[in-house]
From TrEMBL:
Pfam families: NnrU. It is found in: Membrane. The keyword Lipid metabolism does not apply. It comes from the Bacteria. Keywords: Membrane, Transmembrane, Transmembrane helix. It is a multi-pass membrane protein. The chain crosses the membrane at residues 41-66, 78-98, 122-142, 163-188. This is Membrane protein. Residues 4-189 form the NnrU domain.
């Protein structure tokens, strides 16, 4: 459990530097250059993610509550919206990205919130509450940056990107439900 908590704190903390130490990125870019910063950031992101996953996989299972039957269906339904927002954040901005303002942060919040319905063990609750709290704090931080006049929103490009986000999100969502989740996570969302 300790390894999981360290991984969770490091991963979320590392991805919160812009909130709590806004000048840190600029200092790192001036020291290592834009490309150097991206390499360092990527390597540290992967390392903290590996630590988080390893800690999660080896944490003891302590059940806090037992989700009622059918909660996984609610989770699966909400994950469709999370998947669409995820892809809206990865492609040029359409209406979805513009209206949600920060589709990646929204995707993380929906993902975390949805999984709280179908996971009752302590380590899962800590994981999803941690990511949900990170999403809320990140959204508040982004709103403050907007009000301060700092650029945080992507400009609208074209409505066709909404169609791409929908299609890619649905395909990804279906792939996760019917095979990928079980292959990657070890749990089938729809037990047969």
């Amino acid at each position: 459990m300790i390894l999981f908590l360290i991984g969770l704190v490091l991963f979320l903390g590392f991805h919160s530097l812009r909130i709590f130490a806004p000048a840190h990125r600029e200092q790192m870019v001036s020291r290592f250059g834009e490309q150097g910063f991206k390499i360092i950031y990527s390597v540290l992101s992967v390392l903290t993610l590996v630590l988080l996953i390893f800690g999660y996989a080896h944490a003891p299972v302590i059940n806090v509550w037992f989700p009622p039957a059918g909660m996984n269906h609610l989770t699966i339904t909400l994950m469709l919206f999370a998947s669409i927002c995820l892809f809206a954040s990865l492609i040029p901005a359409g209406h979805i990205a513009v209206k949600t303002k920060h589709p990646l942060v929204l995707s993380v919040k929906i993902w975390a919130f949805a999984h709280l319905f179908s996971n009752g063990d302590l380590v899962s609750i800590l994981l999803f509450v941690g990511f949900l709290a990170w999403g809320v704090v990140m959204r508040i931080s982004l709103k403050r940056r907007e009000r301060a006049g700092l650029p945080v929103l992507r400009p609208f490009v074209a409505g066709r990107y909404d169609l791409y986000a929908l299609l890619l999100g649905i395909v990804f969502w279906a792939a996760m439900i019917f095979k990928l989740h079980e292959l990657l996570i070890g749990v089938a969302p729809l037990p047969m």
